Amino acid sequence: MTTIKGPGAAQSLDGSGLRIAIVHARWNTAIIDSLVSGAKKSLLAAGVTEENITVQTVPGSYELPIGVQRLYAASQVQASSSGEGISATDLLSSSTTDLKSTSQSTSPKKPFDAIIAIGVLIKGATMHFEYIADAVSHGLMRVQLDTGVPVIFGLLTVLTEEQGLERAGLGNSGMHNHGEDWGSAAVELGVKRRE
Ligand SMILES: O=c1[nH]c(NC[C@H](O)[C@H](O)[C@H](O)CO)c([N+](=O)[O-])c(=O)[nH]1
Prior knowledge:
By secondary structure, the protein is α/β, with parallel strands linked by helices. It has helices at about 30-45, 65-80, 90, 130-145, 160-165, 180-195; strands spanning about 20-25, 55-60, 115-120, 150-160. 5-nitro-6-ribityl-amino-2,4(1H,3H)-pyrimidinedione binds near residues 62, 119 and 124.
């Protein structure tokens, strides 16, 4: 049975001039790591350079909205200041969330063209899942509309671990890695934002 679900193929876009960030939670890391790899794979395939991909983390999905908002604000400060000797980590060192930059760059940079927020919420025995999912969905939407920077919604809200593994391309059903879709969406929105 051909699946009709999933994004239609976008025309191939040139992401070579884009600066993209991935902010991911540190819960359910086996699934997270695969999703992040999938997103990076699509970014690199579209021509985004390794140097222009920043990966940072927050403790859990609930911290994604503040983590994305603060990282974007830091990239704007970085772009407006001289840039020499200022790294993204320096700018975020006063951050209230546990943001750890894996790309230490001191060269002047422009603000991010798009940010991918990745988290995995797995339903437990309580209503915690519902409250976090609702808060994070609305929070990420608000950040992107307030800032104007596209925030790709990479929050998996799954009922079982297996569902999460499947959507990270780690299951037995051959389902594709949803992270790849998010990387492609970031390139498309990043390019369109500059048109
Ligand atoms: O990213 C997640 N955070 C989770 N909780 C932590 C939450 O995101 C915050 O980090 C925490 O509440 C502190 O603010 C999860 N569960 O509780 O199940 C989960 O499944 N995934």
